[in-house]
Amino acid sequence: MKRPLDRTTIDPRRPQPEDRTSVEQIKLAAGLRIEQYELVRELGKGGMGQVFLARDTKLGRRVAIKFLAAKSKRFTERFLVEARATARCSHENIVVIHEVDEYLGIPYMVLEYIEGA
After folding, report:
1. Which of 57, 26, 24 is nearest to 40 (CA)?
2. Residues 49, 4 contacting (CB under 8 angstroms)
3. 17, CA 20 to 30 Å: which among 51, 69, 70, 96?
4. pLDDT at residue 13 greater than cutoff 60
5. DSSP codes joined into one string, 48-116
């Protein structure tokens, strides 16, 4: 049985009135450098964020960087829960997380890059 929503319950299906800074406002593009990572090209975009292929200039490897789509407490918490859960796992079918940080207030995670569809 579903519990009815009251005024203190957040309905995940409805947008919440929060301070939201979108990834598009940052103008992420190829050539942008964030710490030791240089963005190469966009790999994909979805409801939770935007993913770029990047080059780790310190270690000379390709990585994927996933940026959170919007700056809100709810999405940031969900993003960090995803990162922590994935980081605790060690399996050949689970991507490795190298780092979690923020760029201009937008959380991102640096992931192992695996080529494929």
Report:
1. 57
2. no
3. 51
4. no
5. SEEEEEEEETTTTEEEEEEEESB--HHHHHHHHHHHHHHHT---TTSPPEEEEEEETTEEEEEEE----
Closest CA relative to residue 27, chosen from 46, 42, 16: 42
Unique residue bearing structure tokens 């009251």: 6
Whether the pLDDT of residue 4 is over 90: the answer is: no
Count of CA atoms in the C-beta half-sphere (13 A) of 59: 9
Total residue count of the chain as it appears in this document: 117
In this prediction the pTM is 0.72
Give CA–CA dist 33/7, Å, rounded.
Answer: 43
What are the structure tokens assigned to 114, written together? Answer: 């695996």
Residue 68, strand partner residues: 49
